[in-house]
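anyone seen this seq b4? input:
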Amino acid sequence: MGHGFALNVAPDMAAFSAFTACGLPEVAMASLAEMAAALGGPAPAEEAVRAAVADAFGASSRP
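predicted toks r here
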């Protein structure tokens, strides 16, 4: 069985308390917005995240 790849930018994380993501009960899901807030910064824009991931994988984020 394979796994996917996802980045939670700024969703309502309450939904994640209803299930065990990836069968990992000891792992808490987080969002980039929560992590940025913990560091005192703003949430990244979805387009900026998409572009950064595309750049990291050597792909274009634009059609």
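The mean pLDDT is 86. The radius of gyration is 14 Å. kinda curious what u guys think
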